Structures are given as C-alpha cells and as structure tokens.
C-alpha cells in the first residue's frame, strides 16, 4: 500500500500533503527528543572512557560540557538559517549559501559519517555476539560463552541473523517518526548500560577495588603526550554529532523550531550520560580501559552476579546499537537519494527507488563489518574531519555567509570562534594521528 506524500525533509521538490492528513502526520515532541538523543548516543559512548584515560577527569568533563554547548548552538544556527530560506534540508540550506558545491559537500560528508557509524555499529554488534581477537588476546562473544563455539555463532552467521531478522524490517520504515518507539527503547538500554556500569563502579569503590583516576593528563614525555590530547577531543566531538538528523526530525513536527527545545533536552541528557559513563568506567578499569570499553566487560568477574551484570551490559548495548542503526540508515538513504535523484518526487512514494537504495546500503554495511573487524584508527581520522564539518564547520560557515541577512553580530563572533576551534583541532588531530600511525608502523 502506498503512503500519501509527506513533506519528507531530506527530499526537495515535493508537494505538501493534503490538509486532512496533515494533522495525523505530525511527529510528537517526545518522539523528537528520543530520536535526537538516539542519534547522539551511538557508538561514541564506548570510546568516552578511553578519552578520560588520555585526558584525565577534569579536562574530559570540561570538553564534554563545551562540545555539548557548542553542538546546541550550531543546531540553532542551522535551523534559524533553514527557516529563513526556502529549503527543508541540510543540503538545501548549504546550497542556498554556497551553491551546488555546498550541498554536495554536506551530502557526501553526511553519507561518510552515517555509513561509517553503521559499519562501526555492526562491528561492535559482531564483537558482542561472536567476539574478536585483539592483539593476540581472544575476546569471547556472548554466544560462545553461552553455547560454546559452533559454525552458527561465528561472526558471519551472527551478523547475518541480526541483519535479516532485525535490521532489515526496521530500515523499511519510511518516516523517521515511526522510529520514535525503537529510539525510546534504544535510549533506555543506553541508560541501563550507564546505570549498571555505575553500580559496578560504586561496588568496586566500596570494596576498595577501584583504580585511582588521574584528574589531569600526564604530560611526562613533553610535546607528544600534549598532542595526544587533541586526538581524544574528536572522539568527544563525534559523540555529539546529530546534525544530519536535525532536519528529518524537525520537519516532521508541527513547528520545526520545536526541534531546538528537543535538541537542548537531548544534549543535556546525553552530556550527563557521557560524563557518568566516562567517569565510572574509568574508575572501574583505570589504565586498562580499552578503546571500546565493552571489551573490558568480558573479563570474567569474581561472582556470578558480576558476570551476569557484564553480560547484561554487553547485550543491552548491542541491542541499543541495533535500534540506532535504522535512524542512521534513514538519513543515509535520504542523502544518497537527494544526491542521485535531486529532481525526483518524494522517496516515500517510489517503491522501486526506495528498495534500490535500501538493499545495496544494507549489503555493503554487512560486508564491511565482516571484512574489517577493527576500525578504530580509521575512525579517529573520520572523527577529526567529517563529524567536525557536519557539527561545527558547515553551520558556522552558513552563519558567516549570511545570505538571508539574519545573522547578528554576536552570532557571527560565536560562529568565527567555532570555526577557528574546529579547524585548529582537526588539523592537530589529523597530524597527530598520522604521526603516531607512522611511528607504530616503524616499530
């Protein structure tokens, strides 16, 4: 059955829907809060404890607060500029400011960010279910721990099952508001992860088993460890990038500006969750905190309650990622459609195009997750380039370009500072990554 045409965000040139169906078609405010929060709390949360290990507690908490505040401001810039113009999409508002190159830049960067995140999610889900080998150390997956090693619980079959029976039905949703329920469940699972890791840390604290956290980074070997601080910042920036979903969520609300209140609530919620996760997991694991903290939870605990909690932490997080996946897929498919078929009508009404975009995206994510079991290096580069562009560089550039003449002096000053910070951090992070990468290659 064909859905009626809707004012689908990431798709230009559609007819607005008839007034009779308009009322029932609006997304809810709570749905918007959950969808934005779920876009924020993706896989980023897993690398926050490692950022605490590098930066120390006080700089980490400060950077989380600053980036949360800047993300909220840049979301405001983006929606204000969008509503002053004619478009209803991120690519559209960039096109108004910078012409065709601007819209293509946003589409490509958004696709890199969302596809990259979907592959990371699949890898983490594969790790949790079927384990992996890291530096000669074998981490068992939940399926191996429960049932022993069999052909059907290897990474390939474990992920195949998840893709066919869980992800495929969810990516067939044609409106982002339909995903509000799965987003709410997914957000509550992320919350469960934080609560359990906090409880484990508090128990360890009472028993005197916690590691003493560093409040500030250790700068013992001079310049090198100073520059390492800049590789930890993009990890936190990546963890606050939700801007590619701002328009799809906003333009399904009755008043698109309401998405900014939803964003403010989401950003505060997520900053609290990140701070708690980073602090408690760092307390629990100290310097043995891994880049993906879920790996720390597979170390066998002293008690059966401990190992049960470890299993719950890992499973709840894997399911959380499975439920975030369709949200990112929604935005990826819409960007790809806008890039390839800019003049076509709404994707919602075109079955052939909808399936022609959905299947190849799903298959390529699956194959990438099987082929590349460890992808963290690659994503430090990505975090320091594409997510910084989406969250800060493009919104600041739109304000400074000011094609509709609406930017105030204060906004221009904030945008200039945001742009300078983003570009400087990116350059330092990329060069530090290249330096440490070449050094590990040499050793």
From TrEMBL:
* Residue ranges of domain Amino acid transporter transmembrane in the record: 27-424
Membrane-crossing residue ranges in chain numbering: 58-78, 104-125, 156-173, 185-206, 226-244, 265-285, 312-332, 353-372, 378-401, 413-435
The reply to whether tRNA-binding figures as a keyword in the UniProt entry is no
Q: Does this UniProt record's set of keywords contain Transport?
A: yes
Q: Which GO terms describe its molecular function?
A: L-amino acid transmembrane transporter activity
Q: Which InterPro entries match?
A: AA_transpt_TM (IPR013057)
**UniProt-annotated location(s):** Membrane
Q: What is its main location?
A: membrane
Query: What are the alphabetically sorted keywords of the record?
Result: Amino-acid transport, Membrane, Transmembrane, Transmembrane helix, Transport
User: Which Pfam family, just one, is annotated for this protein?
Assistant: Aa_trans
Q: What's the protein here called? A: Amino acid transporter transmembrane domain-containing protein
